[in-house]
Amino acid sequence: MTKAQSIEEFYQNQFNCIPESLKKEIGHFNIFHREDFCCANKPVPYSRKDYYKITLLKGANKIHYADKTVLSEHNALMFSNPMIPYNWEPLEDNQSGVFCIFTEEFFSQYGAIKDYPIYRPGSNLVYLLDNSQLAEIEAIYQKMFDEIASDYLYKYDVLRGLVFNLIHTALKMQLTEATRLSPSNGTARIASLFAELLERQFPIESVVQRMKLRTPNDFAAHLSIHVNHLNRSLKEVTGKTTSQLIAERVSQEARALLKQTNWNISEIAYSLGFEELPHFINFFKKNFNQTPKIFRNETNV
C-alpha cells in the first residue's frame, strides 16, 4: 500500500525544508491559507496522511474519502485523519479556504484525539456549510491565526481549545434523522464495541495482514453475546444488520487496496478474509456490479 505521507514530508514537499520546531516538539500544530499553495486549484492525490488535518474548502469541490463521495457546491469543512484515505477535485478555479494540521501527540496530555466522536469509525467527515456556519468557522480559524502569531506563553493550550471548538461546532451540525433513535445504553455500547472491533482491523498495509473477525458469529463470540443480540442491537442503532456493516467495511477496504496497491487480486482477497478467490470476485460483483479487475483497470486509467 502507498505509504501515508508524514508531516515531515508535507513540509519538505511544500516548503523544501523541515521547521526546526518540528524536530524539537513532542506534538505539532500549524495553520495555513489554502490559496498560499500552488496546488489549491488542483486535485489532491487520493492518499492517507499520518497526521490530522481540518480543512475549510471554499469553492465547488467533489470530495472523496474512504468509499464515499460528497459534492460541495460552495463551502465545506472536512476532518481528515490517519486512518482514512481522501482527496478532493476542484470543480471551479475560484478556490480558497484554510487548513490546520496537527499530530496525535499534540493532544497527548489531553486525551486520545482519535477516540473523539468525530474520528470514530463511520463518522461523517465532511460538513456542508451555509453562510452563517461559514462565518462561525472562519471566526475560529482567524482566532487560530491570531493565537499562533502571538507571544503568549500558553498559546498552544488555546490552540488545542480552538481545535476542539471546530470539532464541537461540526458535531452540533450532525443532527440527522438518526438522532431520533434513542437506543438503550447497553445497546449503544454493543454497537460502539462492534464498530471498534471492526475498525481495529484496518487499514490493511501488508499482504501478510489478514482480517481475523470476519463473520457476525466471530464478532458475537468476541463480545461474549449471542449473535441474535448483536444483530438486534446494531439494527436498532444503525438500521443495518451485522452482515451489512461488515460487508460495507470490507467493500470500502477492497476498493482502497485495488486503487492504492499493486497486490494481485488473490492477495487482496486473502487479506480480506476470503478463503477462495471466486468468493471475493462474487462478493465484489454483488456490491459494485463489476469485477475487481475491471474496477482496478478503470480506476488506473
From TrEMBL:
Pfam families: HTH_18 (PF12833). The keyword Membrane does not apply. The keyword DNA-binding applies. GO terms for molecular function: DNA-binding transcription factor activity; sequence-specific DNA binding. Residues 188-298 form the HTH araC/xylS-type domain. InterPro entries: Homeodomain-like_sf, HTH_AraC, Tscrpt_reg_AraC-type_HTH. Keywords: DNA-binding, Transcription, Transcription regulation. This is Transcriptional regulator, AraC family. It comes from Aquipluma nitroreducens.
